[in-house]
Design goal:
The longest helix has 20 residues. The chain has 7 helices and 23 strands. β7 and β8 form a beta hairpin. A 6-stranded mixed sheet has the order 1-5-6-4-2-3, with helices on one face. Strands 9, 10, 12, 13 and 14 form a 5-stranded antiparallel sheet that branches. Strands 17, 18, 21, 22 and 23 form a 5-stranded antiparallel sheet that branches. The protein binds zinc ion. The site of zinc ion has 4 residues, from α4.
Length: 512
């Protein structure tokens, strides 16, 4: 009993510390981070529930007031996501909420399935009466965001938050009892760029508050109490509602689309690809040969993937796949009608792509019966990197330029890769080398550094064990004077195939 009371005291203390400092470090309990994504914000595509799912939510303890708060606010997500929450009087549900553990946390998306039925998948330690209504709403929305697969927005690689690391370490160590590694993992770590759509949303409900003294430039993020516009947009992209065919396109046949799933890395006839599986009910189509088709688009520019080889194409030359089916009854239920799409038929080169697809049903006269919302996914082929950002520093002591490249490289774990910096004058003409020290084969000035990614998705952001590319001032081979110069960095794989190039950046240089 005494131990129990001490625990309660500890929780209350913790809670009051959080509200004072306005930091609520909800712990990310994901086992590992996978590489797949879409939409705005950060999320784990592979941990997503099937759109249209009803998640059963049970409570493992808690009073009526706490349970009512959860019901009241969790349902907000269902307005924007094609996912329903059904609150059970008795468990165990798919989502099991406890209130009696320390802190607030949730398993990410379908990771909840890996928990034993007797274990909670979410703890809401901060649903206590001395919180404001806005704070209660904030924490419930945030944890249910995790339940839908969303991740921490402050760990978005595009956030570019300049952490004052010593202050942040000290704060979490003192008030949270975290060690350095835990702070790294929960605060400083960055997700893969491919788990975002390259934009960062400081208004997201999934963002930790950041007091100004946590950053070196005074950047701060207040407590977010509501779903941001981007949160709403993202969750709709992840859990799309089915579109209804417009009035004139409706036939007497109609269909209700249900679960839509994609199975990646499936093999058929020796080809690697994906299986698209669609559940649906179709009405008034007995003995009619209907078509289920899927269409593919680039999610960044919205353009259809174009077919070049005449295989797996629609009549107008887009990448598509279809199968036919003939319902045996007036009202027929189809479970997982499956389409196989070989990756080769996406006809994408090496690289990392954000794609989206939708399915459509047609009657025998090719009249549209219905179509689905978009499903987003990423597709990587070969070693890839999306972009390289650069900054340059002048090391006056060593009399050299230090370039710091920031990038994520994928599928290059353990390979000896190369980063080469090239230097140009104001007009873009390569600077000429004359002593063969820092040079390319064609005799222009360059500097090369080798690097070996430690992970399949490896981030180099010059805050960790990263590298710089150095060039001694004298190796620019410039006479005394003031120059406007340009440079870029190109990454190469172990066989010197180009992975990605940065744009040209400019800098000024004084040769004295
Ligand atoms: Zn969280």
């Amino acid at each position: 009993m005494r131990r129990f009371r001490r625990l309660i005291t500890a929780i209350v203390l913790l809670v009051s510390v959080y509200s004072q400092a306005q930091v609520q470090p909800c712990i990310d309990v994901r086992a590992d981070r996978k590489n797949n994504a879409a939409g705005q914000g950060v999320y784990d595509f592979n941990n997503k529930w099937t759109p249209g799912t009803t998640l059963k939510v049970s409570f493992m303890n808690g009073n009526d007031w706490q349970k009512e708060k959860v019901k009241q606010y969790a349902l907000q997500w269902s307005r924007y996501a094609n996912v329903k929450f059904e609150f059970m009087a008795q468990g165990p549900g798919d989502i099991r909420v406890s209130f009696d553990k320390q802190g607030s946390y949730s398993y990410i998306g379908t990771d909840a399935k890996n928990r034993k039925a007797a274990e909670e998948t979410m703890n809401l330690g901060w649903i206590v009466e001395d919180k404001t209504e806005a704070q209660l709403k904030s924490v419930i929305l945030h944890e249910f965001g995790h339940t839908l697969g969303l991740l921490h927005e402050h760990m978005n690689p595009m956030s570019n938050i300049k952490w004052n690391k010593d202050v942040v370490y000290a704060w979490y160590m003192q008030y949270q009892g975290w060690d350095k590694e835990m702070v790294d993992r929960q605060v400083f770590d960055r997700y893969s760029v491919t788990m975002t759509n390259k934009s960062y949303d400081p208004k997201s409900i999934m963002h930790y508050p950041i007091p100004a003294n946590f950053t070196t430039d005074g950047y701060k993020v207040g407590e977010n109490y509501d779903l941001s516009e981007n949160d709403k947009k993202l969750i709709t992209e992840l859990y799309p509602f089915n579109k209804i065919a417009s009035e004139e396109n409706r036939t007497t046949r109609w269909s209700k689309l249900q679960d839509f799933t994609i199975e990646y890395n499936a093999t058929e006839n020796g080809q690697l690809g994906m299986r698209i599986k669609q559940d649906f009910i179709i009405y008034n189509a007995q003995n009619s040969k209907c078509i289920l088709a899927v269409y593919f688009y680039n999610a960044d520019d919205g353009k259809a993937l174009l077919d070049k080889n005449g295989i797996q194409a629609s009549a107008d030359g887009k990448v598509a796949a279809y199968t036919t089916f003939t319902p045996a009854y007036q009202n027929a239920q189809y479970d997982k009608l499956t389409l196989f799409v070989p990756y080769d038929e996406l006809e994408l080169g090496s690289g990392n792509f954000r794609l989206k697809c939708y399915v459509a049903l047609f009657d025998p006269g090719l009249k549209l019966i219905t179509s689905s919302g978009y499903q987003y996914f990423t597709f990587s082929q070969g070693i890839s990197s999306k972009e390289v950002k650069l900054s340059v520093k002048f090391d006056e002591t060593m009399r050299q330029i230090a370039i710091e490249p920031v990038f994520t490289v994928e599928n290059a774990k353990g390979l000896n890769c190369h980063a080469v910096a090239y230097f140009y004058d104001e007009k873009g003409v390569p600077l000429k080398d004359n002593n063969n020290l820092y040079t390319t084969r064609d005799g222009t000035v360059s500097s090369t550094v080798d690097f070996k990614p430690g992970y399949n998705v490896a981030l180099f952001n010059n805050s960790q064990a990263d590298f710089k590319i150095y060039l001694p001032y004298k190796e620019l081979h410039l006479p005394k004077g003031f120059y406007k110069l340009q440079y870029k960095v190109v990454l190469f794989d172990d066989k010197w195939n180009k992975i990605v190039s940065s744009p040209l950046y400019s800098f000024t240089f004084n040769q004295d």
